Amino acid sequence: MSTVARAQPAFPSKPLKLIVPFAPGGSADIVARALAAALGEGLQQTVVVDNRGGAGSIIGTDAGAKAAADGYTLTLTNGAAITTGPLISARMPYRPIEDFVHIFLLGSFANILVVRADHPAKSFKDFVDMARADKGGVSWGSAGVGSAGFLAGELMAQLGNMNMVHVPYKGTGPAMNDLLAGTIAAMFTGPALALPQIKAGKLRALAVSSDKRGSEFPEVPTMNEIVPGAVGDAWFGIAAPAKTPPLVIERLRSELERTLKSPELLTTLRSAGMVPVGLGPVAFEAFLRRETAKWTPVIRNAKITAE
């Protein structure tokens, strides 16, 4: 007797899950929820956001790597989990390149160097000159060792021959509180947290870490203008577990590309400070390898290791 071939259901035939390796409320969550709504509309399926914060985004990313390779679980990826994290910690629970198909690079975020509005440095050049002259070092905070803000600051300090004293925090919120209180002199953080305080007149933006000036504050220079080579953006991408079927990957890539052209989504992403990029799997993986090569000497020179 011959067997009956059963047709496989078209992808997707059930809701998808998007793992966000950060707690709710931050820029990653804002981006993920806007993307999930737009992507779900195109796929005609619900895309559920699953926040799994912890360990600098490693916990959620590990869950994404170990999910079933069927395209129904996606992960919002970032530098700390994929490129810089493995350079800092030798004990990663997953292989950042090999255990994923890196489907789509969504976009990048500039880190902003901010000081209190009453800080004596009126410009980024003033700040650089002060940090070079201060033998004790200028204190600055970030969301923690290995975070995008920390790496941007470390890159600036190394290339600019600046005397800086890093104060790590467990998140951007506590660092911002101490900056506003005057406990630390400066901070690197993303637009979502910095812009409201800048607009309220409590903070002054001195520089951005991107290679081009931002549209929100075109008068604020890039770090690269004063400290050549100091370019250090954060980024977000979408990945699926390795061995996810190529046809499924292509469907997801196509929908993500379509989604990133949506005016409504672009408005939300830009309001969160993200600059859309839109690279597919081959170009995205090449980008990841360039990022790893870029940050390797910075991390080694600073002798940065996981705590």
Structure description:
By secondary structure, this protein is of the alpha/beta class. It is built from 12 helices and 11 strands. The protein has a 6-stranded mixed beta sheet with strand order 2-1-3-10-4-11, with helices on both faces. It has a 5-stranded mixed beta sheet with strand order 7-6-8-5-9. The longest helix is centred in the C-terminal third of the chain and has 22 residues.
Which features would summarize this protein structure in a list?
307 residues; alpha/beta; six-stranded mixed beta sheet; 12 helices; 11 strands; 21% strand
Count of DSSP helices?
A: 12
CA radius of gyration = 20 Å
Q: What does the overall shape look like?
A: globular
Structural class: alpha/beta
Which percent bin holds the helix content? 40-55%
Unreliable stretches covering 5 or more consecutive residues: none
The spatial strand order of the largest sheet comes to: 2-1-3-10-4-11
The overall pLDDT, averaged over residues, is 91
In percent, how much strand structure appears in the residues? 15-25%
Q: Distance between termini? A: 64 Å
Biggest sheet architecture? 6 strands, mixed
Order of helices and strands: EHEHEHHEEHEHEHEHEHEHHEH
How many E strands? 11
